[in-house]
Design a protein that fits this description.
By secondary structure, the chain is α/β, with parallel strands linked by helices. It folds into two domains: about 1-95, Rhodanese-like domain (Oxidized Rhodanese, domain 1, 3-Layer(aba) Sandwich); about 100-325, HUPs (Rossmann fold), CATH 3.40.50.620. The chain has 15 helices and 13 strands. The strands form three sheets. A six-stranded mixed beta sheet has the order 8-7-6-9-11-10, sandwiched between helices. It starts with a strand and ends in a 13-residue tail after the last strand.
Length: about 375
């Protein structure tokens, strides 16, 4: 049996419990106020603790997985109901409720509450890595998540107060989003007063049947389309919302899973689009501060807009190993930090303190390899 939000709002709040069956990461990223999280895989075991005299409202991502779970619980004698539309339906209404002066409130929080932890670090990265020059036309690439939406607001703030003349285009690529995902992105952008420019591609359809590393291929294709569209709009740079935590996780992932030492650069030239550059102005901003900014402003964003996760509730639903590897590295860093608070800073700085004299082999910018033996001389030459 189904229940809508409108019907749910008419019930006494003590008469029901909302159970969100998505994985814990998705739940922590955003959830219905008052909901409790029990992943789908744990429902059977947890159901023994449910009260049969109280309604159980089952909620998933978009209402595609929850009906079967609610039906199974109902067959066991519980008053289980499927929440029509799931979390996404609630999210759309929540965004509407926040409309009005929300953009001004968010901007004020950036100037005051988060000036030191977010805006100052944004400006520092731009200055330290020379990311913005006079005359730039920057395509701010928005995926719909917390990072890229914050980046858009930071750029607006920078342009409002900075003396450097530059232009902005807020670019959203629709690679084949579900209607629900796209609507949430559009509603958030409107609420936050970000004038987005949306263009469409068929990337999701192109990678749908790819079995090996579809997420990697999708990311590469998306990057190419962003460069191309930005160039068509007269931009010379695209800006991505990667933050400090992304950087240190990438460093460790390269070492542990790729067998190489490399980092996510704050800026780089495009190899396939002459004259175009990629910049990462959130390079020095910590993810925990982004989360605090989001939560203080009561904002909710999509975690993953990939349509292939619409019917997935498990942590391994990324269709690729990259997501699970990054999560493993994130957990590893958190564990190490418990014993040494400087761990994250040291990982970041390791890419600034490379001593080539202590490296066995390295590759230069032209792709040539150099081995320590090339310049190694015996301390005492052997006589003829």
């Amino acid at each position: 049996m189904d229940i809508t939000f409108n019907e749910l709002s008419k019930l006494d709040k003590d008469s029901y419990t909302i159970i969100d069956i998505r994985d814990r990461d998705a739940f922590n990223y955003g959830h219905i106020t008052g909901a409790i999280n029990i992943p789908e895989s744990e429902i059977s075991q947890a159901s023994t603790t449910f009260a049969k005299n109280k309604k159980i409202i089952i909620c998933c991502r978009s209402g595609k997985v929850s009906p079967a779970v609610a039906e199974k619980l109902a067959a066991q004698g519980y008053q289980a109901l499927n929440l029509v539309g799931g979390y996404f339906a609630w999210l759309k209404d929540h965004i509407l409720d926040l409309s009005g002066t929300k953009a001004e409130e968010v901007e004020t929080s950036i100037r005051k509450t988060f000036h030191k932890t977010i805006f100052a670090k944004f400006c520092r990265a731009i200055c330290e890595y020379d990311l913005v020059q006079p005359g730039d036309r920057i395509a701010v690439c928005i995926s719909g998540g917390k990072d890229s939406m914050l980046m858009a607001k930071l750029f607006q703030e920078l342009r409002r107060h900075n003396k450097i003349p530059f232009e902005l285009v807020f670019l959203v690529m629709d690679p084949g989003y579900s209607p629900e995902n796209r609507e949430i992105i559009e509603r958030n952008a409107q609420m936050l007063a970000v004038p987005i420019n949306i263009f469409e591609t068929d990337i999701f359809d192109s990678v749908f049947k790819v079995e090996k590393s579809p997420c990697y291929l999708c990311a590469r294709m998306r990057r190419g389309h962003l460069y191309h569209q930005a160039q068509l709009l007269g931009c010379n740079k695209i800006a991505l919302g990667h933050h400090y935590d992304d950087v240190i996780e990438t460093i460790l992932m390269g070492m542990l899973y790729g067998g190489q030492i490399q980092t996510m650069m704050p800026k780089l030239y495009s190899k396939n689009f002459p004259g175009m550059q990629l910049i990462r102005p959130m390079y020095l901003i910590r993810e925990q501060d982004i989360i605090r900014w989001r939560d203080m402003n009561q904002l909710s964003f999509i975690q993953c807009a990939c349509k292939f996760t619409d019917t997935c509730t498990s942590e391994g639903c990324t269709a690729d190993a990259t997501g699970s590897k990054r999560k493993a590295v994130k957990n590893l860093i958190a564990t190490l930090k418990q014993n040494d608070p400087q761990i994250e800073r040291n990982i970041f700085r390791s890419m600034e303190n490379v001593n080539l004299a202590t490296v066995i082999t390295y590759k230069d910018k032209d792709g040539n390899y150099h081995n320590f033996k090339d310049d190694y001389k015996p301390k005492h030459p052997i006589a003829d």
